[in-house]
Amino acid sequence: MAQHRSQVILAPSEEPPQGAKSVFLAGSTTKVDTVDWRVALSSLLSEMNITIYNPHRADWDNTWREDVNFPPYRQQVEWELDKQEKADMVVVYFHPATQAPISLLELGLCARKRGKAIVYCPEGYWKRGNVQMVCQKFDIEMVESVQGLRDAITKRLSTDSVL
Question: 12 preceded by cis ω (within 30°)?
Fold first, then answer.
């Protein structure tokens, strides 16, 4: 049996990272597929010595107000912003069945930091042209699948001898 070396930290945990490098999984959160893309990617990365920050919360309640003064909401957004800033890499996935406005914001936050982002934005995403232009302008790698995300992360981290 293969040994799992990656560490997955779910929001809002403040568990210390143990991996040699870290990846934040930004992007579409709406449940539109039978398999959550974050779970699939985390499984593909399980043999790597990395920490994966996954913003998914099993206890998320859609009745929570998106208000800076509403503690659970504030805690979630602060956790996400903090972990994105600390992560060595931010993966951003734009699912075609979603608009994902926060994902666009997340890409914008890390676009100017060379080597920080990897993007998966398939045909059909409503703002794909904009995402492509940002990726071209700031030399951000854009891949064509969740497996492509895994390959790009592996390639990038292998130059640091993290595998």
Answer: yes
pLDDT digits (tens, 9 = 90+) for 33-88: 778 999 999 999 999 999 999 999 989 888 999 999 999 999 999 999 999 999 99
Closest-CA residue to 23 (of 158, 157, 161): 157
Query: Starting from the edge strand earliest in sequence, which strands make up the sheet with 50-54, in order?
Result: 7-10, 50-54, 21-27, 89-93, 117-120, 141-143
CA–CA dist 93, 66 (Å, integer): 22
Note the residue count of the chain. Answer: 163
CA distance 113 to 60: 30
Look up residue 3 and give its DSSP letter: P
From residue 49, how far is each of 6, 32, 67, 122 by CA, in Å? Answer: 5, 30, 36, 28
pTM equals 0.93
Tokens of 24: 């934040």
- How far apart CA 97 and CA 34 sit, in angstroms, is 13
List of domains in the chain: 7-158 (3.40.50.450)
Type of residue at 158:
S
How many angstroms separate the CA atoms of 28 and 131, rounded? Answer: 14
